[in-house]
Amino acid sequence: MNSREYIESGILELYVFGKLSEEERLEVQQMAADNPAIRTEIAAIEQAVINLSHSVSPNISAETYDKIRAELLGNDPKIIQMKTKTNWSQYIGWAASVVILLGAAFMYLQMNNQMNGIINKEIEKNKSDFDKMQKTIVTLENKNKATESMMEILRDKNNTIVMLEGQAAMPGATAKVYWNKATQEVYIDAQDLPEAPQGMVYQVWALKMNPLTPTSIGLLEKATASTTKMYKVDNTAEAEAFGITLEPEGGSATPTMEQLYTLGKV
Amino acid sequence: MTQEELLPQIYKKDDKAFTLLYDMYAKSLFGVIFNLIKDKEEAEDVLQDTFVKIWKNIDSYNESKGRFFTWILNIARNTAIDKLRSKNFNNNQKNLSADNFVHILDDPSKTNNKIDTIGIQEFVKKLKPKCIQLIDLLFFKGYTQQEVSDELEIPLGTVKTQNRNCINELRNLLKV
């Protein structure tokens, strides 16, 4: 009998069902040992009936599960010992793994946080450093520009330089006027004027002498002042003298002569 | 898990062995036991006795005695039949052959309503009535070929092959 015929005979089903005589059972086992197709067939038949009986089984109550478990694992002192021993080492192993895992996770998070913190701080620091440097550069550039333009003003050959001397109100004060007659531009160097008091402002006047006619050519307001204290005021076509008075904020229509700080003839 | 992978684990008789054994076989054995006993509480007692016997005798089992499932199936059936033969079950025994495993499926209170087995239950109902009888007597109730031949009035020589055809039908339905 070949293996196909043997399988088709139906003997393997009865083998799985446990309904063969001792002799037949040994014969099947011998055949199975020699023939993989028979072994596969046996496993498939077994699976079919396991699934079948499983599917027609009512639910087993949790109490019965507990009872069976307790009876099998709990009553035999030898098994209790083994169980305890096994569980002990098993739990230690698990516990250790869990601890290591948690530890690793914790360390990872910690390191991550720390590193992130450090990196973020670094980035922030670098950013603020960079911002500061940017500002410095801008400031320097502005200063440089201001200096350059001041140099241009000072070096211009067309400039008339008028020294304004300190007057009765403030004898120590001096100022210089750079007046470019070609372009009519007027710059005031207020380096040696004291800081105007609160609520007051310096006002620049172009003066004609006969008769004395003052014309306001601008205020030395802080907003228009560069760090160099060089002020550009209104263009002036003709002037015989320049004077600076201290006036209330906003300036005055006519100079307050008691507060004439500096004066100089062209 | 194949029998070859399972057995070394089971022999250890530890927690894991119990869990494996129970998870793999408890429901199948209970299906067989309940089909014989018909009373859920009594059947659960038999299941417990069955597991105790398996556990106690597991050292005496080896693969030369046949499939492990066949070995525990025989323990389950024999324990259930012993129970039926005891005084309390004399009345029920008369009805033994009038009922089969498929009738369990018609009582929703008794069956497993888990989704994964509902499909199988539907397949099982598609089996030919002849096959249901054959499988019920040979597999679930553990009748001999002679007993089946007498009960179903079919020639003794055809029991094996008819059963083979029925199991093939089942395997086709279950795709095993």
TrEMBL record, chain A:
One of the record's GO cellular component terms: plasma membrane
Entry coiled-coil feature ranges: 123-157
InterPro entries referenced in this protein's UniProt entry, alphabetically: Anti-sigma-K/W_factor, RskA_C
GO molecular function: sigma factor antagonist activity
Keyword line: Coiled coil, Membrane, Transmembrane, Transmembrane helix
One GO BP: regulation of translation
Record-annotated membrane-spanning stretches: 91-111
Name of the protein in its database record: Anti-sigma-K factor rskA
Pfam families: RskA_C
Anti-sigma K factor RskA C-terminal domain: residues covered: 95-256
From TrEMBL, chain B:
Organism lineage string: Bacteria, Pseudomonadati, Bacteroidota, Flavobacteriia, Flavobacteriales
Keywords, in A-Z order: DNA-binding, Sigma factor, Transcription, Transcription regulation
PANTHER family: RNA POLYMERASE ECF-TYPE SIGMA FACTO (PTHR43133), RNA POLYMERASE SIGMA FACTOR SIGZ (PTHR43133:SF62)
Molecular-function GO terms, alphabetical: DNA binding; sigma factor activity
Keyword Manganese appears in the UniProt entry: no
BP GO annotations: DNA-templated transcription initiation
Domain of life: Bacteria
PROSITE patterns: SIGMA70_ECF (PS01063)
Gene3D superfamilies hit by this protein: 1.10.1740.10, Winged helix-like DNA-binding domain superfamily/Winged helix DNA-binding domain (1.10.10.10)
Residue intervals of the RNA polymerase sigma-70 region domain: 21-88, 126-172
Protein name, entry field: RNA polymerase sigma factor
The keyword Transport is assigned to this record: no
Similarity field: Belongs to the sigma-70 factor family. ECF subfamily.
Organism expressing this protein natively: Flavobacterium cauense R2A-7
